[in-house]
Amino acid sequence: MAISTTVLNCFQDSVQTKLGSDTPIFLGLNMQAITNSAGWTTFLAQLDLAISHGINLVSVYLPDTTVSSLQTLNTQLGSRNVRIILRFYFTADSTLSDSWLATQQAAITALVQNVGIYLPNKVIGYQVEALDGGEWFLLSADTNPSLSTVNAARVSYVQTQLASTIKTATNRSALVLFNAGYLYDLAYLNGSTHANFSTILTCPDIDAIVAPYDYAYARTVGSPFLPQGPMDAPLLHNKMWITEDDTRTSLAAPGTSYLYSTSQAQDVAFMNRNVTAAINHRTGLYVFDLDNDGWYNASYLWDAIVSARNAASPAQFSTLALLNDITLANSADGTPAYGVVPLAVSNLGSGVYYGIQSDINAGLLNTSNFSIVTSLY
What we know:
Layout: H1 5-12, H2 15-19, E1 25-30, H3 37-52, E2 57-61, H4 67-77, E3 83-88, H5 98-118, E4 123-128, H6 152-169, E5 175-179, H7 186-190, H8 197-202, E6 208-212, E7 240-245, H9 264-280, E8 284-288, H10 299-311, E9 319-323, H11 340-348, E10 352-356, H12 357-361, E11 372-375
Parallel strand pairs: 1-2, 1-8, 2-3, 3-4, 4-5, 5-6, 6-7, 7-8, 9-10, 9-11
Helix pairs in contact: 4-5, 5-6, 9-10
């Protein structure tokens, strides 16, 4: 599918410029999992491997937003030349009330001010979570009020307001990223049939959408890469989709959940597949050691990542897998069911453009560019 020159030029003037690439491949690390000095050794060893392979962009998941955590991170980084996306979370109340929102906006402003003091000239963006490290989508349950008193419209409104606060506090110099979570599994996970995703896509203050890749059908050796949402849609809005690649490599501790890779060769195969998919779709990707267990603490992994990045190129797609924003993650008969959308996507295999109906309605996505247009429900 061809992307208009206007869209690409606007895109290159914003997210691409700040991340250094329109398909940035980088590292994600988790301070929450550090409990002792050995944890910092693992954290820094992986960072140094990335830097030695020419990758100095890192997403760091903070344990909290205190001055102490910022000081600790700065001390541990020492003189390393890195660009940081700070990932942090809020504890949300049951309604996302106006008073709660005002409190979080004040906290964000304070965080940005403290970053300027304790992590000067290092932070280029902020990645916002909710619910003590959970996902924003869990707050929305339009069709099952017993799970939540907040609807999708309120969740997306809060996200846009927090994004605006970050832009204001940083004089629009910082990137804003939100974790979208498991958009194809909403119905199973929280009973919701509405993500209000089109609102996020049109928000001028949100630069990137982050989501893991599929856990049900894409984690085993030889399986296709499958996103957890319409990964090609953000580019049409001058935004970026960024895959959180938390593949458990063979370096993970025995018994780690979703550990399917058992050899270096399989590790390399996963890196090749995932990085190539990111480049093919003009998206970003970061490999994320969730447990700070050294999942990416080996040079051969970074050799594979860089090799795949250099070999891949943007692709043209003949198949459009189309989603409907209003019934995102609904099954064909309107009954929420786990696995319906991921299974349908997995049956399509690779080489698929993942779009959303609202982009067709807005004139941003032309179905005539595809030989096959399929609705997942």
